[in-house]
Amino acid sequence: MKVLPFTMLVTDKKSVLSEFIELPFFYQYLHTHNQWQITYIEKGEGTLTIGNDLHAFRSGEIYVVGAKIPHLFKSDPEYFEPNSKHSITVCSVYFDPNEALESLFSLPELRKVNFFLAQNKHGFKVPSDYIQKIASEMLAVHNASGINLLFSFVKLIVALESIGDCIIPLCSDLSSLFVSESDDVRIKRSIQFIKENYSNRITLDDVANVVFMTPHSFCRHFKKHTGRTVVSFLNEIRINHACKSLISGERAICMSAIASNSGFNTMTNFNRVFKRIIGQSPTDYIDNYSKTNKKAYSV
Fold it and tell me: How many other CB atoms are found less than 10 A from the CB of residue 207?
């Protein structure tokens, strides 16, 4: 499934963006943007795809999506039926701590908020005990203007930070592969080489030669900047491709073809690496996705 870059229509009048929408169904494409996103689903049901993980969502829930994380709120199938009477009502708040709000987030008073965001950069579902408070603050942000918008926004992020550590990430570290490339030129070149050639046989020498380093020196340099070994990074890229193929329906080709197209020469190795990274087998992964996606027809 292709990830589309999504650009917010930022104006010079607001540093925090918000929207309140009533539509037949959610935006239909897997996408990513630079802003954090807080979404209150007042009405609607479906499946949230975030990174390589899947979650059923329903009315009355709030989700926080980290910056640059691929995601898609997909409405249940019944929303797309002809003459469907279903619709969604959603309030979302978007903010970028590194752009217009950079000065605000650099204040020492927001140190705890910054730490909270860093700890939960892969997104989370707001616990039920906090939904009423967070939803109220979100609506206040949407209805505010001028300096009151900033006041309301600070109250919102402080309310989020007050949730503490009772949070389960929405997606794994795998999603950070798309957003945490080092500014180091050699790291960028090596990552680009891996992304372009992951389906082929790649050796450590191949990657090291791209950046004119010895394999030993490159291994240390790569792990210092990415926190991963070259082999683990390559496997994560391959499994990420496999996950996208499974979700997009390419499983019909055959599982062995997906494994081969993702760079694995044996099914045994593919299954072993997939389960280690994702936490379940490829078959269980696609079955869980299918069950979640067809939830509307079982109720």
Answer: 23
Q: What is the dihedral of CA 289, 292, 297, 298, to 10 degrees?
A: 120
Least confident among 32-36, 89-93, 181-185: 181-185
CA dist list (Å): 163 to 19, 57, 111, 166, 291:
24, 20, 15, 7, 31
Q: How confident is the model at residue 298 (pLDDT cuts 50, 70, 90)?
A: very low
Task: Supply the pTM of this predicted model.
Answer: 0.66
Distance CA 65, CA 122 (A): 7
Q: Which residues touch 83 (CB under 8 Å, ≥6 apart)? A: none
* Calpha distance 241→118 (Å, rounded): 26
In the chain the domains, ranked by start, together with CATH numbers, are 4-173 (2.60.120.10), 175-293 (1.10.10.60)
Q: Which helix (H) or strand (E) holds 46?
A: strand 46-50
Distance CA 14, CA 119 (A): 27
